[in-house]
Amino acid sequence: MSSLYTRSKEYTRSRKAQSDSPPSSPSPIAKTLRHERLSRLEAATTPSTSDYSDRASSRSSAYSRRENRLAALSSRAEEESNRDYKKLYESALSENQKLKSKLQEAQLELADIKAKLEKAAQKQEKSSDRSSMLEMEKREKRALERKLSEMEEEMKILTELKSDNQRLKDENGALIRVISKLSK
Fold this sequence. Notes:
The chain is an all-alpha fold. Helices cover 93% and strands 0% of the residues. The longest helix is centred in the middle third of the chain and has 135 residues, at 49-183.
């Protein structure tokens, strides 16, 4: 009887240890060991065949219930891990989409800034071109003003020369007349 008590104690300990362990499908070795334990336990405790069949059927149904429960737990754990992976994938996908949209915004902003910079460079070029053109125009204007003043001086000289020439012509004509009167 004491061996029966120790076996049943060991059986309950192993059942507690198994229920504390994480759910997983039992390996074939574990199944055969359980089956052997059950058969030994049933053989030691059976005084009659009807009690034996009742106990065996109740134990086998308990065993099958436990197997079903473990299988359900393992399938739930797999589903949860799949859901976790799916959630992780979806969150990574949404994060990628956010980053892509930020990248596109940054690229658009960069293109806009490049266009503004190019326009500013063109304006500066035009202003430098304008300043160089203005400087050239100023030089030309000064040169033309100098020529104009020189031409005005020449015009004054020409008018003076014309008036001198006319005066000399008049004097020459008067002298010719005086000489012609003196010679007659």
